[in-house]
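User: Hey, quick favor. My workstation is busy. Could you predict this chain's structure for me?
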Amino acid sequence: MKILVVCAAGMTSSALVANMRAYVKDHPELDYKIGSCASNQTDLYVPQADVIFIAPQLVYEEESLRRRFPDRRIILIPAGMYGELDGGGVLDLLNEKASAKQKEIPGWALRLSSAIAHSAVLQSLSSAMMSLFPVLMTGSILTLMRNFPNQMYLDALEVSRVSELLDLGIAMTTGCISLYMVFLTAYRYAKTKNLNPAGAGVNAMICFLLLLHERSGVIMTQYIGASGMFFAFLTSFLSVHCYGRFYHTMVKYAPEIDQLPDNILGSFLSILPVFYSITVFLAIDYAVSLAGSGTVPELVYVHIQNRLQKYIGDSIISGVLIIFLIHFFWFFGIHGGQIMNTVSTPVLMPLSQENLAAYQAGLPLPHIMNYQFRSIVVLGGAGSTLALCILMAFAAKSQKMKRLGRLALPMGVFGINEPLLFGIPLVLNPFMLAPFALIPALSMLATYFMTVQGILPRLNGLEIPWTTPALISGMIEGGWRIAVWQGIMLAVQALMWYPFFRILDNRFLSEEKTR
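Assistant: No problem, here it is.
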């Protein structure tokens, strides 16, 4: 039997799978092959499995998976069992007829999270961003190499002309981010519409470049980078809409074309939709030119991207709101980060790219808030639980808290904290709600205030893995002052967690003595 465990990023599920495999090794009579994947990889891996286990924080995915894969057995892992990483207990669920249910989660919360997570537009943006991660990461590494704070090193780069190669690499990675974004977003969005994704992606790039020209015919390269990201988003969705509308019209009114050979049919069904899309975009460009309002990319940048960044992205109010909503969802056992990232990433990523471009050019960084800001202040995953992990591992008196702390600490260093969320638990636990929600928000407010006062530097926007440990992430994103600030925050967060930790620890200790 082939078993697949699905969680948000495939991290915690990997640890659970290791325990499940160890259990199978101790029970040779069990003929199980066990693997894990992230939630965005289900289309690839679910068809290869017989049984699908879903992590409890992905409860909103259960109905969708059952609908898409009706011939697969799908089991929701109980929260406590998942928090304990109980591999044997999970495998024992195979002998039960019904999947575990999290009845405590309100139906409206499940519907809301499902609506956000399964929005075709937001899914396409999120998937495109994930596909771009290698490009962003490579550009960030090259930028760090190009701007390493050592004058002898920088002089050597100039003398050897290696700096020119690094500049070229940066220009072709993060410097062309919108060009790659328009293709990937259209590609992902076309798949949700059952269209040819490659054809739709190329079509979107053509439409994007059509509107990027100046009246002299020269391409406006400034909008190929971070300044054109919202323009790329809009172009992707509009071009796919045009492409799909004409495609489905052809299929509807000319059903006999299905009789054509496949190689001819594929080309025929792409030519006219592309022609129609290009015609629409040429008409848009012509209308804007007649109005004398500049170019389409300029209009989008000035009237949409700048305003979104000013009032939504580069705003502490929106930052705190996002933090609140993330922990609001997590309190009900729903993966708040995955839900809210689909909404916030398209707004915050351009801010990071603009900071990165300014950092590479040696200019003042324009934005305080960006995509990396939250990861700098939330230490150890949702709730900033790294400090709690340390307290549990080294200061707990009860066996439950001590065992969970030592189990969770190695993963907590890398921002993975499901063992705490479901093991203590923190989710659906009113007693722990105050520190769980307030500590990250207060940490963000304090960091923002310190940055506004000039005590802390602005973050440079370098793309690093979200699992990068605290202090190291601070050093990369803002230098030694951010790293020191993370150390101070860790100590302060431990003090804030301590009263709640001690009360809960004493409660567990009392229960253990009673037993």
